[in-house]
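Lab notebook, page 48
Experiment: co-folding of the full assembly
Goal: obtain a model of how the components sit together before planning crosslinking
Operator: M.T.
Materials (sequences as entered):
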Amino acid sequence: MNKEISISELINQFKESEGESFTINEQAIIAETVELAANRTTVAITVLSILGGVFATLAFLGFLLLAGLYDSEGGLMAFGLLFIIVSVVLNKVYSKTIIDTVSVSAFMIGFCMVGFSLEELGIDDQLLCLIFIGMATGILIINQTYLLSLLSFLLIFGGIFGLLNTNDSLIIFPYIYIAVLALGLSITGLNEVKIISHSQKFLKLYQPLFLATACALIVLLGFSTVVNSYTLEVKANFSWIASIVCIIAVLFTISKIKKRYEHEHTILNNGVIYAGTVLALTPTLFAPAISGGLLLILLSYLINNKVSLVLSIVSFIYFISLYYYNLGYTLLTKSIILFVTGLVFLAAYMLFINKVKSHEEI
Amino acid sequence: MTNNNRENIYRIKSHSNLSQETVEKSLTDYVYSDKKQWNWFIKIFLLSLGVGFTTAGIIFFFAYNWADLHKFAKLGLVQGILIATTLSIFIPAFSSTTKNIILTGASVLVGVLFAVFGQIYQTGANAYDFFMGWSVFITLWVVISNFPPLWLIYIILINTTLYLYSEQVAYYWEERTVFILHFCLNLVFLIETVLLQRIRKEIHIPTWFTNTIALMTAFFATTGIIIELFDYYESSNYILFLIVFLVYGFGVYYAINQKSIFYLAVIAFSSIIIFSGVIVRMGDDIGMFFFVCLFIIGSVTGVIKGLLSLHKTWSNE
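Observation: model returned without errors.
Model output:
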């Protein structure tokens, strides 16, 4: 756990390190701090807001379906858009945690209604995805509050996946999408400072962007694992593209982590780390979920995002279990592979603690 | 949803001309995982994967049910590995976390031993007594190690035993009775954990552990009542209602005393779902769903307002 430091201590430190060229609007910072103190939230409260929104949306959809209101395209579209506008305006004007449930519910209900309406109008699925992506992008330009930005990013990633998945002949696309998301997550995770320094909007969007990319990658990796195990073999043949990108991203992330501590003594030499990683991940070339899962864990731990770390660990365990479950060998062969892999990890562990110890003794 | 240091650095950055180098340095110093944390992380990661994979390899080996291997050889092999694993925790060089992870692996091997026994003597793969035996024979290790992940496995095993018992032996039990029992079982563990935390302060129980048990308890309460509402509408006996009402009442009192936003949020959300169920059950017309939607939005917003003001008061104390 990193030590907590107060905002005033931070300002003093910055004044000292930046020198005379440093200009700061302390009044604005104090005003924002006071404002935020009244709205300081916890993970439990945020989850409560989202769950409240989801359940309210489900109840509303139940109402729509039972009342048969989904037949009226015009009404659905008008009310759907109204809900979305209300949600964005509410969030923009009163950026307060207390209205989160209202705006999350209105946002989700609005998009469901617009979706129903477009379906009723017989709009093509690809066009529907494009419309959703366009609307979500528009919302991100207008509003950068945490929850709505998170939902908008998820909508964009979901929309792109929908676009790629509606065309069955292009089965390579989901894997390219995984590769792009893995690259995107690495670039986002490793360049926090550059991204937040770009503009005020980017600064506000950074955290929801990282979490949404991580969630999208987890869902896509899960999808690829399930698809690999149930459908055509052909689909599996393209999975190496995603794996290679994920493995390269893992190696690159490791090199960045090492670089961060380069001024101190490095514990293990580069060759052992990179060769070991490549060796451990090569057998999973047709299961990008393993290298992707590892990448997610590393990046989440690196930037210290607890929500994505927990999600990554849980999904990593699931991906590994599914990988071995689906392997087309007898249980005996699987048992030998697992046992040997386990021993290799234990040996790596022993090697690591010995190195740490000898390093500490120096 | 982000930590305070990061939030503060972001805020200063947005109202000043802070250089990228300084932002990078402050994030490295106060937000990102440092070298010590990375060492800990790599250690736990490698060890968990090592123990996990090795144990899984052993499980798969016995699941293969090698016909050429004599039954005594099978049992002897598992017992040999089990003894070797258990003895390895006496190696003084290992830290207590390492020993606990190894003991967790050994506890899983006890399950393997029972499974192999069941396989040889055809006791059935999902028999409740398999899980009961497994739970009983690791109890001592669970208590001695006091390792939260092992405790969690233990609680899941006992819940599984209860579930299978109700399916295979006490199949005449009503579904609501099973939920009452699961609720009470997890409640006992929750109370025990909370009491232990207060009485023996030297034992550190991580928040994620108590929170997980609290969530399991609330899950059985909520699902049990929803089942009662929809499946036993004509013959409701309100026992679970009454117990949950009393427990939640005490839970709110405890949460306010302990200044726990988490417990309050869980109890509030579970109550909102239960009330929504009551509303849907009471009215048959379509408008009820609309009303439920408004009720959820209104009540969750109200709860959040209350929680925020409590959080603010408690943070200032």
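Interpretation: The radius of gyration of chain A is 24 Å.
Next step: discuss with group before ordering constructs.
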